[in-house]
Design a protein that fits this description.
Its cofactor is [4Fe-4S] cluster. This is GTP 3',8-cyclase. GO terms for molecular function: 4 iron, 4 sulfur cluster binding; cyclic pyranopterin monophosphate synthase activity; GTP 3',8'-cyclase activity; GTP binding; metal ion binding. Keywords: 4Fe-4S, GTP-binding, Iron, Iron-sulfur, Lyase, Metal-binding, Molybdenum cofactor biosynthesis, Nucleotide-binding, S-adenosyl-L-methionine. Pfam families: Mob_synth_C (PF06463), Radical_SAM (PF04055). α8 links the parallel β5 and β6. This protein has 13 helices and twelve strands. It is an alpha/beta fold and about 375 residues long. The chain has two domains: about 45 residues; about 300 residues, TIM Barrel, CATH 3.20.20. It has a twelve-stranded mixed beta sheet with strand order 7-8-9-6-5-4-3-2-1-10-11-12. α1 runs antiparallel to α2 and α3 runs parallel beside α4.
């Protein structure tokens, strides 16, 4: 810029030497043009270079992870048998749990590395009073394609309209029986009518499909398989039968397991099932009954695992990263974030944990003996 000013003053001195007005005007025009050019070049040089794209979250086996499940709370208003013991579980102190600002920040770290789908779980996520704000702040992050919710459905009729306005895109409802007495035995609380009303409201609001998660347990609700298939006749729901899985506190044993093939056989005995087209990274094998609005799926976590296509990461309510639902290892992102770690340092921790993710889970027998959190403290 000093050079430009000197050039400008030299033009003025030329003017004092009886240079023609036309020549002076031409020189001033050139100087003005040079000033603008210099200013543009200087501004470009001062601006930051284009950001380098952040590499995606890929583990040692080439699996790309674009799906983050965030547990919002350890609390629940049910006591489902496969999730926790009847007496409940010791809960973390409130200060140990992630605040909304913390979980939104941690989510942003994952989203920067290619996560585009976020699911909110618990505990029971609808017990958080700021749930709609969480949904909105996650949905507003550039790169987030979908924010979904897994809930027991007890308070959906009250909470769902606001959640939809906040940007909630998809909904899973846990429902293990269509019989009121049996539902109460499984959940150790009443509430079937409220859950069904919540599902109906979700359908009225345009959620399509509403996914219904059914944990099958031999001798308890496996005789309702066809009832659930029939539930899809007039409703745009996808009933997903889930194999019973071993977690601390749920008294797992393989005698309660209803294998995928057995459940499929029971459903096909009374309904003409046709396979639906497979969906990328889907945990469920989906079937349809011709003429029915909905569909049924089978999630075979135990007997036919889908580890080779796993794209999921989990963040617990107290801020621990779990790269595998069935793995006991965890990394505290909360402690690092509260200790002053930058986003880049947090992402490095995520990548380090992901490099240690195994090719598959340890299998039924080993999982039954492994120390792991109760499901309520992991996030469904």
């Amino acid at each position: 810029m000093k050079y430009i000013n000197n050039l400008f003053f030299s033009v003025k001195r030329v003017n004092n030497s009886e240079v023609s007005l036309l020549g002076l005007f031409t020189r001033v025009r050139l100087v003005d043009s040079f000033k603008r050019s210099y200013s543009n070049e200087a501004g470009s040089a001062a601006s930051a270079p284009a950001e380098t794209p952040v590499p995606p979250l890929v583990d040692s086996f080439g699996r790309r992870h674009n799906y983050l499940r965030i547990s919002l709370t350890e609390r629940c208003n049910l006591r489902c048998q496969y999730c926790m013991p009847a007496e409940g579980v010791p809960l973390s102190a409130r200060g140990a749990l992630l605040s909304r600002a913390e979980l939104v920040r941690l989510a942003r770290v994952f989203v920067a590395a290619g996560v585009d789908k976020v699911r909110l779980t618990g505990g029971e996520p609808t017990l958080r009073s700021d749930l709609a704000d969480v949904v909105r702040e996650l949905r507003e992050q550039a790169g987030v394609r979908s924010v979904a919710l897994t809930t027991n459905g007890l308070v959906l009729t009250r909470r769902l309209p606001a959640l939809q306005r906040a940007g909630l895109a998809a909904l899973n409802v846990s429902l293990d029986s269509l019989r009121a007495d049996r539902y109460e035995r499984m959940a150790r609380r009443p509430g079937l009518a409220r859950v069904l009303a919540g599902v109906d409201l979700a359908l009225q609001l345009g959620y399509s499909p509403v996914k219904i998660n059914v944990v099958l347990m031999k001798g308890f609700n496996d005789d309702e398989i066809c009832d659930f298939v029939e539930y899809t006749r007039e409703r745009d729901v996808e009933v997903r039968f889930i194999e019973f899985m071993p977690f601390s506190g749920n008294k797992w044993d393989d005698s309660k397991l209803v294998p995928y093939r057995a459940a499929l056989k029971a459903a096909a005995a009374q309904h003409a099932l046709e396979p639906a087209p497979p969906r990328p990274n889907d945990t469920a094998t989906v079937w349809r009954v011709p003429g029915y609005r909905g569909s049924v799926g089978f999630i075979s976590s135990m007997t036919q695992h889908f580890c080779s296509s796993c794209n999921r990461l989990r963040l617990t309510a107290d801020g621990n990263l779990k790269v595998c639902l069935f793995g006991a290892s965890e990394v505290s992102l909360r402690d690092s974030a509260r200790g002053g770690a930058s986003d880049a340092q947090l992402l490095a921790l995520v990548r380090a944990a992901l490099r240690n993710k195994r090719a598959r889970h340890a299998g039924m027998e080993n999982l039954a003996r492994m120390e792991n959190r109760p499901m309520i403290l992991i996030g469904g």
